[in-house]
Design brief:
alpha/beta; 6 helices; elongated; 4-stranded mixed β-sheet; 3-stranded mixed β-sheet; 235 residues; Zincin-like
Length: 235
């Protein structure tokens, strides 16, 4: 038998399941029978057990990213708790201590896999929009300082790199940089802009980087030190 807390409400029209801190909470309308709720829980047993296991893993490795309620996400170099609720429209609030995601109430009617994909997609959209705005401003700022201007700028997600520059003068940046401190983003922008002058990692290249961003070694160390914690979930 699955242990759970049942909360009934006259305002609810559908049943909602929540797994938080190793406990299952069921929110149900007043008119739903206990037998129906028990049957639903048995149908969702595999998903519930997976969520409980995921949360147990998060507790044992509480720095790794986990995109579930009570999980962990890194924003601006700060480890924050990810909290999820449901409402009229999707909203993301980047608060001091937590990163709160409001999903549409209709999402709870979807399968667990689709719910997880919606959560991931909504966060990724927020990260991309934030990165596009912030990185574009930084590229403009440092381009003026370096007198080096890219032919094109693109922000997207990459699995194994924070940025790149090609021989056509095109710069690409990983929107997951929003997980790192602001000054680390500055370093990556300067790094890629310097490749417009030196498309290599020669001594001259690093001298140009250091001249325009003296903290570059500290930034490289931060990225290396946190690389395991910043691995984005693939599913």
């Amino acid at each position: 038998m699955i242990e759970y807390q049942l909360i009934r409400s006259t305002k609810r029209k559908t049943i909602g399941l929540e797994v938080k801190k190793g406990k299952i909470t069921v929110r149900a309308p007043e008119y739903d029978k206990n037998s129906y709720i028990e049957k639903l829980l048995q149908q969702k047993k595999t998903w519930l057990e997976e969520k409980l296991l995921q949360q147990n893993n998060v507790e044992n490795n509480n720095e790794s990213i986990s995109l579930l309620h009570g999980g962990v996400i890194w924003i601006n170099g700060i480890k924050k708790a990810l909290t999820i609720s449901y409402g009229v429209k999707p909203v993301i609030e980047n608060n001091a201590e937590n990163f709160h995601l409001t999903m549409r109430s209709s999402v709870v009617q979807l399968s667990e896999l689709k719910q997880d994909k919606r959560i991931k997609a909504q966060i990724e959209t927020w990260l991309k929009e934030s990165a596009t705005q912030i990185i574009s401003q930084k590229v403009e700022k440092y381009s003026q300082k370096l007198n080096l201007f890219p032919s094109h700028l693109k922000v997207r997600q990459y699995k194994a790199r924070w940025g790149s520059c090609n021989n056509r003068g095109e710069l690409n940046f990983n929107y997951l940089l929003m997980m790192t401190p602001d000054w680390v983003v500055d370093y990556v922008v300067v790094h890629e802009l310097c490749h417009l002058a030196f498309l290599n990692h020669s001594k001259q290249f690093w001298q140009l980087v250091e001249f325009n961003f003296p903290r570059y070694k500290e930034a490289k160390h931060w990225l290396k030190e946190h690389q395991n914690q910043l691995r984005w979930p693939t599913t």
